[in-house]
Amino acid sequence: GSSGSEDEARPGTAAAAAAEKREERLRKFRELHMQRNEARKLNHQEVVEEDKRLKLPANWEAKKARLEWELKVEEKKKECAARGEDYERVKLLEISAEDAERWERKKKRKNPDLGFSDYAAAQLRQYQRLTRQIKPDLEQYEKLKEQYGEALYPTSDSLLHGTHVPSKEGVDRMVADLEKQIEKREKYSRRRPYNDDADIDYINERNAKFNKKAERFYGKYTAEIKQNLERGTAV
Fold first, then answer.
1. Domain coordinates of the chain in residue numbers?
2. CA–CA distance from 160 to each of 140, 150, 156 (Å)?
């Protein structure tokens, strides 16, 4: 009787184990299915975001960074105004020496001194330099606008010759600037003419400049050697 009851219990136990194993597989399958759906959803979101980025202008990131920086600057200005502080002074106090030096180098790279190429380029550079220095006198502008009205804005039919008389302050500024230009021009080094009586110890102009530099720095050390070579008494 006992062996019969054991035979009846074994199939029930096996069926329960099989059912539990099947339930475990189904649970893993559902988890994998949910993970696949989540990955598909994330991939779709990434594709949509990438498509948005590709449709944006090429310099969008730079513009965004610039706008964020301007917003921070405006907030900082408001905070300084609320505390009664000067924003420019506070900004200078926050700049480190390394940042200031790096910005100065960047400024020089932006407007490098290319030297003289031709007279037209030199004139253009001078014009740009002078226009950057111009500070508009808005008060004088308003006075002229009241005085001349529409005539202040000439058209193709306007007669301009002899109608404008510069102010004494404007003439003085122009004279001062011209004197400054003359003084600066006098400091320029002139091209020295060749001395026909000097010894020829070079093969071209570049070599001549190098020899002059070498003579300037090492001439006192090599003078005796040169004299011995010229006399033929060098060892």
1. 59-97
2. 19, 13, 10
The position carrying tokens 């610039």 is 66
On whether the CB atoms of residues 144 and 152 are closer than 8 A, the answer is yes
Q: Are 221 and 230 in contact (CB under 8 A)?
A: no
CA-to-CA distance for 209 and 194, rounded, in angstroms? 12
**pLDDT of 77 above 80:** yes
Percent of the chain with pLDDT over 70: 83
Contact 202, 211 (CB under 8 A): yes
Q: What is the DSSP letter of 194?
A: P
Handedness of CA 201, 204, 207, 213 (dihedral sign): positive
What average pLDDT score do residues 95-118 get?
70
The confidence band for 175, taking pLDDT boundaries of 50, 70 and 90, is very high
pTM (predicted TM-score): 0.31
